[in-house]
Amino acid sequence: MSELFPGELETPTFEERKKFYEEEFGLEKVRWLKFMWDKPVLVADVGTETTRYRPIHKKHLGELVSFDSYESFEDLEEEVIRYVPEDLYYDLRVYKHDQQQTNSIWEKPDGKQLVFHLQPTTTTTDFSTAVDTDGVTSGKDNGMEGCKCEEKREKLAGRRLSQYIFCEECFKKTAEKTKDLYKFLRRNFETVIMFFNGIGFDVHVLDEEAFYMDDYQRDMLFNKLSKRFPIDINGKEHSNDVTWLPGSLNGVTGRKVIRVKLFELTSPLKILYQKSRPEFFNKEKEEGDGFYSTSTL
Ligand SMILES: [Zn+2]
To answer: 215: domain range?
Structure first.
């Protein structure tokens, strides 16, 4: 049991993560990501937050490792398994390959998938810089203020993983807000899909026009929406150019990054405790509950 997270959530050990990537992870499941890319660029954190990593990868702590040159999805999958990532992301940018050039350095991003992150750890204080045109600081109505878990995050600030502390109540509120954001976006966009990222939710807009919004349009939209929704606009969790890869494991909470449908957001605790629970946790539980432990068989 963890003092950081609600319920049974616990940071997996390196061995558990390894088991997940070897037995449960499959890039096959995310081939749909190729809708805009020939070869998606995956990006991994080897273990910066949890300090659980393969010793040979120590030099990569504090940075993101890119998987951008590979022959096939099978090769890419092998690479991922070798790194046992704490978190695995994909690059949201779309690269246009210049046929005149053979060097990949000439591949320039010419679009970016529009994704919103809603985290239970995002509070009103994160929006102190978001100011309305009339000079009023916004963020008062994003619905996340004043919870015990925020106090705990502040009290334990500086301690490992303290920025990820959240409670069930804030998680439920985040799910509610995600539902609202989805409905709001569906008024303007055709294809909007949602994922649970192990802590909060990611809302992806797949309409082509959204890929080609410029920075100014994006900033306007993010600022506007952050007044009503707990959107992580500061990129605290990661750079704004990447997002969690569906099908991967959140190495902090030990939950799978999974797709969620609108109706599922009405019972968010099911997502948190059942649907996103990796197989390896279930197996351990069953073994533990039985008459024989694996060591005696
Ligand atoms: Zn809370």
So the answer is: 14-98+107-277
Cα-to-centroid distance, 152 and ligand 1 (Å): 9
Q: Classify residue 60 as left (phi > 0), alpha (psi -120 to 50) or beta.
A: alpha
Residue 272 alpha carbon to ligand 1 centre in Å: 15
CATH number of the domain that residue 65 is part of: 3.90.920.10
20-24, 70-74, 81-85, 260-264: least confidently modelled range: 70-74
Give the burial class of 238: count Cβ atoms within 10 A of its Cβ; 0-12 exposed, 13-18 middle, 19 or more buried: middle
Tell me which DSSP letter residue 144 carries.
Answer: -
Q: What is the dihedral of CA 203, 206, 209, 214, to 10 degrees?
A: 50
Q: Measured in angstroms, how far is the CA atom of residue 201 from the centroid of ligand 1?
A: 16
Q: What is the pLDDT of residues 180-200, one digit of tens each?
A: 999 999 999 999 999 999 999
